Each structure stands twice: as structure tokens, then as C-alpha cells.
Amino acid sequence: MKKLKGFDFEPTMFYDNQIGGMADLANNAIYAGNDSEIYEHELIHLYADKKWPNNSHELFTEGLATYLGGSVGYPLDYHVKKIALYAQTHKVDFSDLANLPPIDEYTNFQYTIGGLICKIVDKKSGLAGLTVLSASVESDEAFYRLAEQSLNITPYSLTEFIQHELEKYK
Fold first, then answer.
1. Which residues of 11-29 are buried (b: 16+ CB within 10 A; e: fewer)?
2. For 158-170, how does the pLDDT look when each residue is reduced to its tens digit (9 = 90+)?
3. Model pTM score
4. What is the pLDDT of residues 122-156, one digit of tens each?
5. Which of 9, 10, 27, 146 is most buried, taking the most CB atoms under 10 A from its CB?
6. For the chain, what are the domain ranges?
């Protein structure tokens, strides 16, 4: 179906040991790979695009999809636990998420920490808090300011805040 719609091959959709997919927002469709009938992560993308059509920041869109729909077939908490264990033995600068490489083919810092931020904001402020995070921003720094506003933290404490939250998952 993807080829019929004119999409090029997407290798990340087809890892042998995980499910994958892609949301086609323009056509309100989901393409699921590896024999999965539905991919909840991509379904959240369709919903979020309708709810917040002007948002384009990956930390929110992928974070929300990971928080509510998991990623590569695993729930958010699975990924958060892996990052918590990884951070015990590696120095991680969470204020530079865009430049952190994935831990492995399953767990990605951007999706996971974005998801953790969405989860914490949702627990604290519900839909109103997520709506604040959904504002259209062009940079990670602007997204961090929204997260800091929602969580009452400063740019200098983002790494410490995330490390503190990760302690709960060890």
C-alpha cells in the first residue's frame, strides 16, 4: 500500500524483531509493518494531528505517541526503565536530546524522554497541560521552555529533573 501511495521504502518500519509503522496524516491512514494489523503509536499521531494541527515539534508528537501508544511494540515504561539503567553508567545530557543517539534499535532518547515529559505533565495538569506542550515551536529550546513552564523547572535543571524522575524507574 505504501508503494502504491508513492512512498519510498522505509527501513525502520521493517526490523525483523519489532513492529513498526507510519502515520499518513494527509490521507488519515496508518501503514503498519511486520505483519502488525495496527500500530497504536501511529494511531496517536492521527489523533494528535486532529487535536493539535499546528504542532510540529518531535519531542511532543513522538513523546505523546510513545506515552499513549508505546514505541516499537513496547510501552513507555519499558523504554524509561532502559534509559534509567543506561544513565546509571553513562553521562547523559538530557538538555541536548536531539543529539543523543538511540540506546539500541528499540529505545530512542527523544521518543522516551518526550513521552516521560508528556506523562508527567498529563498527571500534573491533564489535557490542559498537554495543550500547553502542543504549542507549535521550532526548536528544542522552545519546547524545553514549554516543559519547564508546565513542570516549574528551569533550563539549568532539566537534566537534573529528568534524572530525578528516572530514579523512580530503577
1. eebeeeebbbbbbbeeeee
2. 788 899 999 999 8
3. 0.83
4. 999 999 999 988 888 888 888 888 888 888 887 66
5. 146
6. 53-167
